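Reader question, answered in our methods column.
A reader sent in the components of a multi-part assembly and asked whether the whole thing could be modeled at once rather than chain by chain. We filled in our standard form and ran it. Here is what they sent:
COMPLEX SIZE: two components
ENTRIES:
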Amino acid sequence: MQRHSILAGLHSRENDGVAGAFKPQLTSLVDVMTILLVFLIKSFSTEGSIVTPSDDLQLPFSTSQKPARPLCTIEITRTAVISEGEELARLDRLGPPDSMLVPPLLAWMRLQKAKCEGLAKPEVLIQCDREIPFEIVKKVMFTCSKAGFADYSLLVLTEE
Amino acid sequence: MRNISFTKSQSAPSGAVPEVELDLTPVMNMFLILVPFLVSMAVFTQVAIIEFSLPPNVGAGLDDSLGKPKLKLTVVLGNDHSKVTLGERMLDSIPSAGDRFDTDSLLARLKVRRAGADIQDEVIVAVLDPVRFKHVVNVMDVCRDAGFEKIGLSSAADEGL
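And here is the structure of the entire assembly that came back:
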């Protein structure tokens, strides 16, 4: 009954001036909403994200502004080399220590190369964790080059 | 004029200025529609790409008169310092302070060396095995800031550093 009278106080103009009528103060809420709206408009993007970084790695920061485009992607996380959700090789078992070649990755990349046969310049997009030593990246690049890929792109986070 | 934007709230005593109250409910309704829409379209992390090639594919770089390959500037990146070299000749050596590379000095030296180089749009970044990937990306950024459009990435031999 009391709740009913509060709601009635909210919506009914006739109750104005009656003792106990409840009027919510929306001013501060509108202030918050306005700030939120400005922030969201600033980060609004009509293009969306074509390439989604993997959750398992932290990309390095760069000043590059070149937009990402969908390519054949290799992810080098802190534990494994992954492509399209499939773990190709673990970093602690990348192959013989004296060899630059990663056999499972080579087989995978040859398949990918066959898919890109129509393209003039098949390209690989490498997503690599920022703390990975270059030795690992070198092996991945070498294996990709053996599969026929010569051009590469690195996915990075844009610095503000 | 005033009555248009105000609610028809309290009836003020005659002669006194009426207390006005803005009706913010439509504004709140608009916000409640706009905010979820903008949240769904917001991009909080911007991604970009850095293009590079393996060194032989950066460019042909042949000297037409002699048929010999032209030398390209190379930035050799080690754990504790970086070097700018041209062929076998070391041009500059820049030490790094702990985990941080002196990118400002490297940028200044690269700009100077680029001005005197035969090939001014290509550079090779040669990296030692233990160097972390974030430093490689930093140095590639520096090379691009110095005016090099094409970047080749290769590994460096341990000797000499």
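What stands out: Chain B touches chain A through 46 residues (CB under 8 Å). The first strand of chain B starts at residue 47 and ends at 53.
Send us your own complexes using the same form.
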